[in-house]
Amino acid sequence: MKRTLTRLSPLLAALVLAGCASISPDGLRSDVAQRTEGRLPAGAQLPSPDMKAQQDAQAQVADWLKTPVDGDTAVRIALLNNPGLQAQLAQLGIADAQRVQVLTLPNPSFTFGRFRNGHEREIERQLSFGLVQLVTLPWRSRWQGWQMEQATMTAAQQVLLLAADTRRAWLRAVAAEQALAANERMHEAAALGGELAKRMAQVGNFSKMDQARELTQQQQAAAQLARARLNAQLEREQLARRMGLWGQQLTFKLPAQLPALPKNAELRSGDDAEATALRERLDLGALRRDLDVTAGRQGWATVGAIFGDIGATYSNNTSTERATGHSDKTQGWEFDVPLPLFDWGFAARGMARNQVLRSASLLRENAIRARSEARSNWLSYRTAYDLAQQQQAEVLPLAKLMQEETVYRYNGMFMSVWQLLAQARSTTQAVVTATEAQRDFWLAETDLQLALTGTSPGTSPGMSPSLATTAAPAAAPEAGH
């Protein structure tokens, strides 16, 4: 009895593995959330497949939209409300169901036959099942676990990409509204100058050339205001699209200004940028798992190609003589083993070897790119900070000082009203330039964060470039009967 249990222990273990495979109730969203922990704003959550949770999420989004939406809140809304992200997470749930299907043993087949001739009647009963699916279940379970880990990291990349795209859209939208307000002030100054020039020309105190010059300034300011208004509307639409808003939700408000620049001591250090990228980036982790899966299947490739159709059949046949009624039973086993006469697995072995080489090369290529992107984005980040700090600390105060001095001289009748209006336009343009520099710094900070912990900043939200060129490893050969 003990010897029998020992012989059946591998079979029992395989059956236990097949029985333990189950679909994740949340579609692996909790695993994705674990991968993105610390990389998203505090309180950010992923959409739940539960209907009640979805209704609660919509109520939460409505509450957030009642107040001006800051950058972190915009990311939280996008993660809960973006339909594209919900579709990607649903695809992860599909992959999880496919994993369970692959690990589920195929149903055995039952054959029943009844045959007659002049002397006897024969009843044939056969129960067939594939051995390869059963024997390879522990290995397939491990491979599928690696593949789901890779798919989870890929989904986590999409979450981080959406968060980064939403933050960029929020920064551009707020900066565009700031620029619009500045251009409105600039247009008011230009319109005032044009109206004053028109009245002075009517009474003969202004030449036609001077009037034309002021009217040109007014027309240029009007055109620039129209472009600024259009840009603000388009940037707002981009943000609304990322957050999945429509209808009455489009009336959301934004803060009046961008976040202030951090202090110099609060800036990120570039000393360990490369090491952080190699350690934290999710696209590199997914490629490492792809290499593990491909290397793990290399040894099976040849055996699977040659002996992937091994099957077993149990027969229980009864033959009955019609004349005497005498019955004979025949019981036994049959094994179906392919003979490697033509296919010796050379092609499968070569393909598996090159798949491993491809996965290893992709990992090295993306590691080099991750190092380069970490260095490049840190340089862009640091330069953007220096430029924004220069605008805030030097250029903008200087422009305001010139504005104040111009007002003093105008009040003392040492400068004309035209010089006052020209200086007002110049000061307003300096405000717009400083706002754009401040926006560019925060955009560079977003790109740096993504390059260090997520994936390439220029990646499309649909797919990471490192994974788009990586084909799925070949599935284990199907077992025959």
UniProtKB/TrEMBL annotation:
The keyword NADP does not apply. SUPFAM superfamilies: Outer membrane efflux proteins (OEP) (SSF56954). Keywords: Signal. GO terms for molecular function: efflux transmembrane transporter activity. The keyword Signal applies. Residues 453-481 are annotated as: Disordered. PROSITE patterns: PROKAR_LIPOPROTEIN. Residues 1-23 form the signal peptide. This is TolC family protein.
